[in-house]
Amino acid sequence: MQEPDLSDLKAFVAVTQERGFRHAASVRGVSASSLSEAIRRLEQRLGVRLLNRTTRSVTPTEAGQRLFERLAPAFSEITTALDAVNLFRESPTGTLRLNVPSIAAREILPELLARFLAAHPGITVDVSSNDTFIDILAAGFDAGIRYDERLERDMIAVPIGPRVQHFVAAAAPSYLTMHGTPKHPRELVEHACIGHRFDSGVLATWEFKRGNEVVRIDANGPMIASVIELQRGAAIAGLGLIYTFEEFVRPAIESGKLVPVLGEWWQSFSGPFLYYPSRTHMPGPLRAFVDFILRQDSSESKSSA
Predict the structure, then answer these.
(1) C-alpha pair distances (Å), 277 with each of 127, 274, 286, 287
(2) Alpha-carbon distance 45 to 167, whole Å?
(3) Considering only 32-36, 150-154, 260-264, which range has the smallest mean pLDDT?
């Protein structure tokens, strides 16, 4: 039997881990066809089928599962060993894979990553924007960004970005002139509200709070969208009210295109966190990014003191 290539074995582990060629290709930064060819070559050399493929799923055969159970820990050890050596570099190299919500991708990461990559030219940051909660390890990511209520308690969490954020309700002057300005959140049931749908398909509930009173409203209006630019554009056009992250509508409010309403009811919440698993040997790029964030946080604390 001809010895299989190490790259083919790595391709097999990736496809088995991701339960599909497309996801594995995305994680590894290669084409799905190249992974398919690697698996075909590996099965031919070993003389046994390793994966069952259908149009809907990819699952290991019994032989494939046994091979995966032996290979996955071995490749993990190799990665850990290389990362340990990477720590001795003046500037680590490699790829940092992040899974982040759209608010972080738009408002927090651009400036932060520009400074980080300037300080670490040997690192590549691979960012996936996703507003649903996923298992970052199973999906092949090194770390993620999420808000406190969605963090898994066995993860390490480091504050990143603003420490307090707000949801802001606003509407165009033309809309308020025609329909009036709501004075209480319950009045919103009589107004056109531009809804937000999460990637999971769930429609967001508008939650307002003043003191101990909490009011929840199901948005009902002419548009429901998962893309903030569509929602904001509809609000500016006078189609209805919007309720979203302050960062998304602040420029429109400052320019007068939108007018804030129900200010005393706006929901405030703690800012996002970078989270990652507790590991004895962190990958070099992740360690560099965590250290960078902690230094930024320390510098901002000192400047505000």
Answers:
(1) 18, 11, 11, 12
(2) 58
(3) 150-154
Check: CB of residue 111 under 8 Å from CB of residue 163. Answer: no
Domain 94-161+271-304: CATH superfamily is Periplasmic binding protein-like II (3.40.190.10)
Q: Which of 280, 264, 35, 72 is nearest to 168 (CA)?
A: 264
Q: For the domain 6-86, what is the CATH code? A: 1.10.10.10
CATH 3.40.190.10 domain extents, the chain: 94-161+271-304
For residue range 169-189, list pLDDT tens digits in order.
Answer: 999 999 999 999 999 999 999
Structure-derived torsion over alpha carbons of residues 145, 147, 152, 153, reported in degrees to the nearest 10: 120
Query: Burial of 181 by CB count in 10 Å (0-12 exposed, 13-18 middle, 19+ buried)?
Result: middle
Q: How far apart are CA 224 and CA 196, in angstroms?
A: 6
41-44-49 Cα angle (round to 5): 105
Name 41's Cβ contacts closer than 8 Å, sequence gap at least 6.
4, 5, 8
